[in-house]
Write a structure and sequence with these properties.
The chain is mainly alpha-helical and 498 residues long. The protein has 19 helices and two strands. α8 runs parallel beside α11.
Length: 498
């Protein structure tokens, strides 16, 4: 088992998905099986924290590498590799995966087995994206993670679910096809130059390009990743997908799928095409900053609570992209820990909105006033996670934001100042959301129950994560720093500043 631990972690949810279908006649057994599978996967991920760096790899800082023969005649191998970056991300994946099953315990009542099949299959895809270092295998997992989301939104979504599903599919498929063409071109070019047929990242980073070709291939990869992040102007699918998705779908979208785009940008696009990355840095920086301002401005006009948080995700992801493209140790550390922070806080907000929607059957701010008196426990959690999301010092988001801004200021002061001003919108729409929902004028509504023990069991671990990363981020930053030291030797012209 230890020899293929990463493979087990990746495919255990898929086995659980098949098991869920097998017990579709017993809804309770199906839910318990899915929850047991994800908790087991979480325990396996936690066991990885005892590993020491692997002596070989792209930069010699891998914690674990598993490489198996697959389609060697085509240069395709089943290669999974774990470093500190992917370790934290798969920990987030398995933790949120278990919580989404608990979130769906009462919400999903139709086709329960099929729902858990798609949910668990999608988690296999996400885990594979965070661990694959063979680019063909990465592309396979990239597609696997997206396909189940079509069904989760299209079958269990809200009123305009078909529109949101089609829009999500068109954006995602378009980006993926462009990336596939670029990937095959990279594979063939490397084979022509070296006589070696491979999709391995370790080998492909040494491919030589003409300047126009490198810019074209980089642009193709970045388009696919920008759609998933999402960056303005290819962001328009996300608010609709979030608004119409079931709560579990929104949690997976915000907490995990958006992170795969940033992770792929860091892991593949920049190391493979370092000169093109430098050339496009000003454009990507402007797009990231534009997302902060634009999404924050649009969030101010939203009356649907779920749609407001969706636009806030675009704004936060814009700041993360700024940290990635500035590309120094401080900004990258900030962006990576902010990926974890955003995954926790925004997922918690979507979970809380889902709990509220189950009770009141509305998400309109104009109908949600006075919740502090009606639902005091729910309101306390909502206030806590909202303050974390707007960057209150002492809570988790503040750590990532300050690292990104400080690191950016050392290299590009104008971008840091612009990013700070953009973050002020986060405070404005966040406080507006709290004022109108918790302390606004309460309309007539029936008496409703506050949070249950199951719902508290979902929210308390997320609270602990917010406090831990806000007050003691050192261990997480140390894990990230070790991985970034390894990445330093893999990026050539993009070598990280100390």
């Amino acid at each position: 088992m230890n020899a293929s631990l990463l493979g087990i972690i990746v495919f255990l949810p898929l086995l659980g998905a098949l098991g869920a279908l097998a017990c579709r006649q017993n809804v309770r057994a199906c839910r318990l099986l899915a929850l047991t599978v994800m908790l087991t996967d979480l325990v396996l991920v936690l066991s990885l924290f005892a590993l020491s760096p692997h002596p070989a790899g792209i930069a010699g800082n891998w914690l674990r590498i598993e490489d198996y023969s697959w389609m060697d005649s085509l240069g395709i191998r089943f290669t999974l590799a774990l470093d500190g970056i992917s370790l934290l991300l798969i920990l987030l994946t398995t933790a949120l995966g278990a919580l989404t099953i608990l979130v769906s315990w009462k919400e999903i009542t139709d086709h329960v087995a099929a729902f858990h099949f798609f949910l668990l299959a999608m988690l296999t895809g996400v885990l594979g994206v965070f661990l694959a270092t063979d680019l063909f295998l990465f592309y396979l997992f990239w597609e696997i993670q997206a396909i189940p989301m079509f069904f989760l939104i299209g079958i269990w979504g809200h009123e305009r679910r078909i529109y949101a599903t089609v829009k999500f599919a068109l954006f995602t498929i378009s980006g993926s096809l462009v990336m596939l063409l670029a990937l095959l071109s990279l594979h063939l070019l490397h084979a022509r130059q070296t006589g070696e047929t491979t999709f391995a990242l370790l080998q492909l980073i040494h491919t030589s390009f003409s300047r126009p070709l490198e810019l074209t291939l980089f642009g193709a990869f970045v388009l696919a990743f920008a759609i998933k992040i999402p960056l303005v102007p290819v962001h328009t699918w996300l608010p609709d997908a979030h608004t119409e998705a079931p709560t579990a779908g929104s949690v997976i979208l915000a907490g995990l799928l958006l992170k795969t785009g940033v992770y792929a940008l860091l892991r593949f696009a920049f190391p493979l095409f370092p000169h093109a990355a430098q050339f496009f840095t000003p454009l990507l920086l402007v797009l990231g900053l534009t997302g902060i301002f634009y999404a924050g401005w649009i969030a101010l006009a939203q009356e649907d609570l779920k749609r407001l948080v969706a636009y806030s995700s675009i704004s936060h992801m814009g700041l993360i992209v700024v940290g990635i493209v500035v590309w120094n140790i401080t900004t990258l550390s900030g962006s990576l820990i902010q990926m974890i922070n955003h995954g926790i806080t925004t997922s918690a907000l979507f979970i809380l909105i889902g709990m509220l929607d189950e009770r009141l059957h509305t998400r309109k701010l104009s109908e949600l006033g006075g919740l502090w008196k009606t639902l005091p426990v729910w309101s306390g959690f909502f206030l806590f996670f909202s303050l974390a999301a707007i960057g209150l010092p002492g809570l988790n988001n503040f750590v990532g934001e300050i690292l990104i801004l400080v690191g950016t200021f050392t290299d590009r002061p104008w971008a840091a100042v612009a990013g700070f001003i953009g973050l002020l919108w986060t405070v404005v729409y966040g406080l507006r959301m709290l004022r109108k929902s918790l302390w606004g004028k309460a309309g007539p509504r029936p008496e409703i129950a506050d949070l249950t023990h199951r719902e508290l069991a979902i929210l308390i671990p997320l609270c602990l994560g917010v406090f831990w990363l806000g007050l003691h981020p050192g261990p997480a930053l140390e894990i990230i720093g070790t991985a970034l030291a390894g990445l330093n030797t893999a990026t050539g012209p993009l070598a990280l500043a100390p």
